[in-house]
Design goal:
- This protein is mainly beta and 330 residues long.
- The chain has a single domain, classed as TolB, C-terminal domain (Neuraminidase, 6 Propeller), CATH 2.120.10.
- The protein has two helices and 29 strands.
- It has a five-stranded mixed beta sheet with strand order 1-2-20-19-3. It has a four-stranded antiparallel beta sheet with strand order 4-29-28-27, with no helix packed on it. Strands 5-6-7-8 form a four-stranded antiparallel beta sheet, with no helix packed on it.
- The longest helix is centred in the first third of the chain and has 10 residues.
- The chain is globular.
- The chain starts with a strand and ends with a strand.
């Protein structure tokens, strides 16, 4: 059972403890050369977040709620040339809307293609890849929402009772999916009907940019020797990584404690959605803070927001818990 704990400003998650001290301790020791090690709880429980000393520089961006009566609970979003595609987990539908708010098409599949709680969405090579959470699969559509195929995901029960696939990225090498799991925290790579697991100790989000798949950890896994438990905590350094073959490679270290829950990359750097800071920050490609694009009330409650960028350099952010979409522009 996954239990969410809040200790001061420190968010963490713990998983049921097992009397396997030697095995668990050794697992922590063996991970120290990994790009994402398992931390000793005593080393990170009092770690100070970089947010505590952040001298914010606010951008000139305008933030407005983007309302549409056809959307109840937005969970995923992607910007296309001719409109925005949003998944709605409450109505089990996918909706394409132009930039003036007019609905172009809505699909709520029936039969074997029926959507149940659709979540994050990715676009690549004029195809849309939607996480169909309730069916534990990815459904693929063309840019006009015509169904193409499905990709079955690995058995989620093996990853914990509360596990759901949450983020997705696609490039020419295949489809990449990840979710929140302390049992097997990896990135799943689906290619031509085969599954391979990438990385270790990864809890975070993934994104395609210029043909490469990038990843940012939102939390770090720790081991508590006193309780003989593993858990996850936000007050560890973030890392921007890329996938090379079957391994994660570090691009740069990011600020500690930002709790980056979604991100995208563009010519101006790393646009990251910080749950801990309830803000959207811009970092440069070396991980240094540049500015705060927007601060949004309630963003601290969102585990899986998703941000997208249009060709007009405008950002759209979905907040599933708040059931809102925000439009951010200058």
């Amino acid at each position: 059972m996954l239990i969410l704990l809040v200790v001061g400003s420190m968010s963490c998650a713990m998983i049921g403890c097992q009397p396997k001290h030697n095995e668990n301790y050794q697992k922590m020791i063996n991970s120290q050369n990994d790009i994402l090690p398992i931390y000793d709880y005593d080393d990170v429980e009092n770690e100070i977040s970089d947010l505590d000393n952040l001298q914010e520089i606010m951008s000139n961006a305008v933030v407005e709620e983007w309302k549409n009566d056809n959307i109840v609970k937005p969970c995923g979003i992607v910007c296309l040339e001719d409109g925005i595609v949003v998944t709605d987990s409450e109505t089990n539908s996918i909706i394409k809307i132009d930039y003036f708010g007019n609905v172009l098409k809505t699909i709520d599949q029936s039969g074997e293609e029926k959507l149940i709680s659709p979540g994050a969405i990715a676009e690549y090579a004029q195809k849309l890849y939607v996480i169909d959470q309730g069916n534990n699969r990815v459904q693929v559509f063309d840019s006009d929402l015509n169904y193409i195929e499905k990709i079955d995901l690995k058995e989620s029960k093996l990853l914990g009772p509360d596990y759901q696939p949450q983020t997705i990225a696609v490039n020419e090498t295949g489809v990449y999916v990840t979710g929140m799991s302390l049992h097997n925290p990896v990135i799943d790579w689906y290619q031509k009907g085969e599954l391979q697991e990438i990385g270790t100790n990864f809890i975070g989000s993934i994104r395609e940019y210029n043909g490469q798949i990038y990843a940012i950890n939102s939390m770090g896994i720790y081991y508590d020797e006193k309780e003989d438990c593993f858990g996850a905590i936000t007050t560890v350094p973030g890392k921007l990584m890329t996938i090379k073959g079957k391994k994660l490679r570090e691009v740069c270290e990011l600020p500690c404690g930002f709790g980056i829950r979604n991100f995208l990359l563009d010519e101006d750097g790393i646009i990251c959605v910080s749950g801990s800071g309830a803000s959207i920050y811009r970092l440069d490609m070396e991980g240094k803070y540049i500015e705060t694009i927007a601060s949004l009330q309630g963003l601290e409650n969102e585990e899986y927001p998703q941000i997208a960028k249009s060709d007009q350099n405008e950002y759209f952010l979905v907040m599933p818990v708040a059931k809102k979409i925000y439009h951010i522009f200058e």
